[in-house]
Every structure is written in structure tokens, then in C-alpha cells.
């Protein structure tokens, strides 16, 4: 692998550059890229992970917000003429525009400060995404992969698992980055369902339902949905209203949402 050019990490972009080539090789092995696949990397930085992938795929798209990194990236990866660099904010980028011949695969070492909204942005385009492999703060990965009953199970868990199968792969320590973050990171694989196991009739209403359910985690469903669902509704749903919100699975929240739509609830 080529030696990265110098660039000082910028706090406002949440930059922590991965420099541990053992970890990079392990990530690439988890992604298992193949020639001809359309891989898209968010925040390639100096190109350490990019190089490991494009060496196999021969072509690649990367989305980079920091314009000062782009010349460095192009120098470090000058051997790959089919590297397509998009200077853009990933939060506003239309990833579906890259899926011209089928699906795309998305990878990235995501900035901690925007990881959750960025994941929701990508989930809104899940229909064109084959899978996603991300380096995230370990706690975020734990939330993404949490199961009903877990302490970290919440809105992020439910909405991500509505769209995807989520697998926490392995932990990466701070020493693998420059500068080192103050917390552990982890690699997660998210694979959008080809057929949704549970279909919400109104996705905005589902999002609102989940938000309402978790607004007060220590209170019961009866309390959190007071004025929205009554005991007859819970009986219809076959859901115990004395449960706390973290006890319900994705299918339960979808059924609540669909009942609310039937009752004529708004998205507010």
C-alpha cells in the first residue's frame, strides 16, 4: 500500500484517520469486494481503506467533503484512473444516482458526530443498496445491533432493523487511528432486506410511532401511547400495555403504526 500524504485531521469534519493496516486488511476481508461491483466509500480520507478495495474492484466512487483531502487522495491513489471522486456532503448526496446498473455497496469510516443522521439518510435509499460496512463508535454499533430487551435497544435499533439485517463484526481500538478517538470503534455490516419482513403502510407514521414509544423509556406503553391507543387497541394488537418500549420487536411497532393509520392518525 502507498504511503499516505500528510494532512492534519479536522475536528469540524470529525476526522480520525485509520492507519492500522492489519485492521484495514480485516475490514476489506469482511467487505469481500469483487471486480465489477459498484462500491461507494463515504469519507475516504487519505485513501487507506480505498486502496485496499479498489485494488480488487479496479474502479470505485468516493464521497469526500474536505476539499483539501481530495488532491492528497488523488496523489495517493494515482495508480487507479477509475477512482471517481465526488466532492460533496454525504448527508445531502443522492447515492441512488450511482446505482445506474443495479445496486451499490457502501463503506466508510463515518464521523461520529453525524453517523446516526447519515445512516437514516442511507436507509431512505436502501432499495438501491446491497450492503453497508461502516466503522462507527462502538456504542452506536451496539445500538444498531441491539435486540428487544437490551438496554441499548431503541429508536435507532428498530428503524435500522426495519430496513436491514445488522451484524456487529469486530471492535477497533483508539490506537488504530490518528488522532486516536477517546472511545472504541466497531465495524458493522448492514444488509437491506430484499423483501421487508414487516411492511409499514406509512413509513413516516412508523418513525413517529417508534419515537413516541421510546420518548420515556422507563414508562409503560400505556403511558407513552396515552390518548393514542386504548386498552381495546392493545388487545387487538395482542400487546401487553404494561410492557416497556424496549420489549417490543420491529414487527410490533409496525403493527401499532398500521393500526394507527387505520384509525386515521397523523404523522405529527
UniProtKB/TrEMBL annotation:
Source organism's superkingdom? Bacteria
- Report keywords, A-Z: Cytoplasm, Methyltransferase, RNA-binding, rRNA processing, S-adenosyl-L-methionine, Transferase
Q: Which SUPFAM superfamilies match?
A: S-adenosyl-L-methionine-dependent methyltransferases
Q: What class of enzyme is it?
A: transferase
Q: Which reaction does it catalyse?
A: adenosine(1518)/adenosine(1519) in 16S rRNA + 4 S-adenosyl-L-methionine = N(6)-dimethyladenosine(1518)/N(6)-dimethyladenosine(1519) in 16S rRNA + 4 S-adenosyl-L-homocysteine + 4 H(+)
Domain Ribosomal RNA adenine methylase transferase N-terminal: residue ranges: 23-194
Q: Name one GO molecular function term.
A: 16S rRNA (adenine(1518)-N(6)/adenine(1519)-N(6))-dimethyltransferase activity
Q: Recorded E.C. number(s)? A: 2.1.1.182
> Which residues does S-adenosyl-L-methionine bind?
16, 18, 43, 64, 89, 109
Q: Indicate where this protein resides in the cell.
A: Cytoplasm
| Similarity remark | Belongs to the class I-like SAM-binding methyltransferase superfamily. rRNA adenine N(6)-methyltransferase family. RsmA subfamily.
Give the protein's biological function.
Specifically dimethylates two adjacent adenosines (A1518 and A1519) in the loop of a conserved hairpin near the 3'-end of 16S rRNA in the 30S particle. May play a critical role in biogenesis of 30S subunits.
State the NCBIfam families in the record.
Answer: ksgA
What's the protein name? Ribosomal RNA small subunit methyltransferase A
Organism of origin is: Marinomonas phaeophyticola
